[in-house]
Design goal:
The protein is an alpha/beta fold. Helix content is 37%, strand content 19%. Helix 1 crosses helix 3 and helix 11 packs across helix 13. The structure holds adenosine monophosphate.
Amino acid sequence: MKILVINSGSSSLKYQLFDMDSGAVLAKGGCERIGAGGAVTHKVPGRENYTMEVDLPSHDRALEIVFALLTDSEHGVIGSIEEIDAVGHRVAHGGEKYKQSSLVDPELINYLETIVPINPLHGPPAIKGMRACLRLLPKTPQVAVFDTSFYSEMEDFRYIYALPYEFYTEDKIRRYGFHGTSHRYVSQKTAEILGKDIKDLKMITCHLGNGSSITAVDGGVAIDTSMGFTPQEGIPMGTRSGSVDPTIIPYIMKKKGLDPDEMADILNKKSGLLGITGISNDFRNCLAEAQKGNDRAALALKILSNGIKKHIGAYAAEMNGLDVLVFTAGIGENQCEIRRMVCENMNWLGIEIDNEKNENFTRGIPFDISGANARVKVLIVPTDEEYMIALDTQRLVK
Ligand code: AMP
């Protein structure tokens, strides 16, 4: 079975074609600058990457180009688009209705339209991607896989904010959680690696990338997570502030004469590592600056690692224990320094890492960095959201 996974952003569209019989990626790539020019990168394992500049006025056109590349005599990997058995779409937000991955139909798309006001950045491009696929592949089943659905079993006292209750009932203000597909993948993979039933494990999964979130997974169920109504809540990120005292926002808006869009832009795009250092949102640059003696870069790393540490302590308390701590995504998988800072002085909780293993880990594969006396396993587990989407899609269309 061949499954195409699509991830549509506001001006981008990423794709991966999987052969589910072997689990291999046959081809992958991305369209950039949709609506403002256009460029496509297409990668086939074992061949040179192919890039092209092409006018991409819409997601529809981008998808047409992707299908042309997948079936091209020189760059392609399949004879015709009929060979694609199903399409899986990454959808950030399923609202309160979609609690699990679901077949795409008009009802699903109509519902996603109704929740665009609470998902203005990610909702419209995902809908465009689905509509484009329905038009170009009308006979092929399509599945929507939601980042929020992993949190659908979270209890109300963890998702209701202490605000007037009508904000929830009338305005849908609640914690939804994001990055769920990644947390679900790494938690299942971790149980598999440890050879244990996920029902018997209390885990904390740290997805640390340009966007970061931490999730408490008790017996396979996500019971709490750091992101909330939007991906803005929680720990500091590349350019997002994470949680701040809410009163800062009206205070600084009044003081600097900012309107809501300008304020949202600062919180989303000019805060986090970039905001503190004034240099970069990229962890690598911040670390390099800190190592050169830049105090603000060193401060940014401490704020980030302390934010992660506080969530680990809180989630261990919520779960009444902890068996496994997992690091994933760009920073979590690749940066030993953040893992060292987070796990330092945590032996009271049973967390101790082996510094040698932490520094000399093998990239791209799961790696155990637990110390000899650790009561809590500490693992690096590379995430693979696209494969998780392909697996859900396969399950639903079968
Ligand atoms: P992501 O959003 O998961 O792509 O992660 C982006 C972040 O991960 C950036 O802050 C990078 O500094 C960091 N990162 C990504 N890849 C690497 C790598 N190979 N080595 C070190 N850091 C990396």
